[in-house]
Amino acid sequence: KQMEYSAGRGAAGKVSLMTVGAQALLDAYMSLGHMTAGMFSEPLFNAFATTSFFQLVLFAVFEMRYMILIWRAR
Asked: pTM higher than 0.85 for the full model?
């Protein structure tokens, strides 16, 4: 939702790059945490692997794209 409102360069320049970067870093660590938990809990591996995959996609696609948009606006 935030990407829709800050699609322009002017609006994206007002967003803190440090905040979005910290959120992206936290999502990446949570993805690794879910994958590690899935490896230790074999009966729940599919659930943890699915969660880890979706968090990785969220981090790699959406948040990185948004960070590049903010960086270009500055």
From this structure: no
Q: Which residue has the tokens 């936290």?
A: 26
Sign for the CA dihedral angle at 55, 1, 25, 74 comes to positive
Q: 12: helix, coil or strand?
A: helix
Question: Is a pLDDT exceeding 60 seen at residue 2?
Answer: no
Residue in this structure with the two tokens 């910290």, named with its chain if needed? 22
User: Three-state SS for 16?
Assistant: coil
Residue 61 has pLDDT above 80, yes or no: yes
| Residues ≥6 apart with Cβ < 8 Å to 67 | 17, 20, 21, 24
Q: Whose structure tokens read 């074999």?
A: 42
